[in-house]
Automatic annotation (TrEMBL):
The keyword Secreted does not apply. Coiled coil: none annotated. InterPro entries: PPIase_dom_sf, PPIase_FKBP_dom. This is Peptidyl-prolyl cis-trans isomerase. GO terms for molecular function: peptidyl-prolyl cis-trans isomerase activity. PROSITE patterns: FKBP_PPIASE (PS50059). It comes from Shewanella gelidii. The keyword Nucleotidyltransferase does not apply.
Amino acid sequence: MKAQDNSVVLFNYTLRDEQGEVLETNQGSDPIAYLHGNDNMMPGVEEAISGRAAGERFSATLPATKTYGERIEDCEKRVSMKHLQGAKTWKAGMTALVNTDQGQRQVTVLKVGKFMATVDINHPLSGRELTFDIEIVEVRAATDEEIAHGHAHGVGGHQHS
């Protein structure tokens, strides 16, 4: 089966920057699972996977507009230190998680005060051309429940309790 709308795709990836440095990978972990064609994956990654079958390995170099978006200048916010997640002590340049109305968001700490921090709310990888080395592990038909819920279930997907 090939990746198409309403199929569940499981894949492994390695993300590289413009110089080929590895930024992140899920190699050695469970594959990522998503419901294809339901806005659950970065547009560029989904486009690169579309029409591919299990066992395929490939690389896709994608512009910022197809991954984390373009950088928006002067996109700074002041937030309470207690809202920064990911470390006990914060310094400028560190990446933190912050809960927003749209879910968790990665931010970059710009300045740390006693009670407040100034953060750049652009994703740390925004504005960059990135290369994804992808291995398709499995492609299967989505269940009716997955289609109704709008996401993949099981290993690498959404877990319901």
